[in-house]
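During the no-cost extension, the postdoctoral fellow (Dr. R.K.) reprocessed legacy sequence entries with the updated structure-token encoder. One reprocessed record is reproduced below for audit purposes.
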Amino acid sequence: MRWLLNGPAQKARAVVLGETFEHDKHSYRRTDSDRDRTWAKSQGEPPVRVTDEDGPVLNVTLIEDTAFWEWAGPEILRQSGIRVEELCELTHLSIRQYRRPNNEVIALLVIAPSKSKRERVIPMSADLFHAVAQIIRRLTPTADRSACSTATTRTRRPGQSPCRSSCNARTARSDQ
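Re-encoded structure tokens follow.
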């Protein structure tokens, strides 16, 4: 399936519904059904589905999504040692950072109390942090931009962008 995700999937996203494209001397056509057109009008980009000359319709979006979650779930379980129930309960609030006195930042994964009735804090390795970041990127609607809170705070000055880092927020509070 890797060949499908690396080659035809990327090319299929670039073509219009119903258009054909070639990959490794094979001709593929992106489907153009009523369902695809309805989805494109209401939801934006429809799922990428392709067919080759003699094969069935392949839902590339579904295949890619399945492959991602089959990697991400076990990777987080393997790297962190948490249970499946705890994995299902992870949220953005589960990710914290600790700044050491020498300004080194350590990413932490906070596991909500469950069986042990105690909160656990796990320092994240680079691989665990990568897996968590990939999930956040995938689930964030604007994955190509950095996350930005649009909430107005008491420290926000007129004409100031609503997207501010916590460091800027601390600076703004100390200026007042």
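The first strand starts at residue 20 and ends at 23. The first helix runs from residue 2 to 6. The remaining legacy entries will be reprocessed before the final report is submitted.
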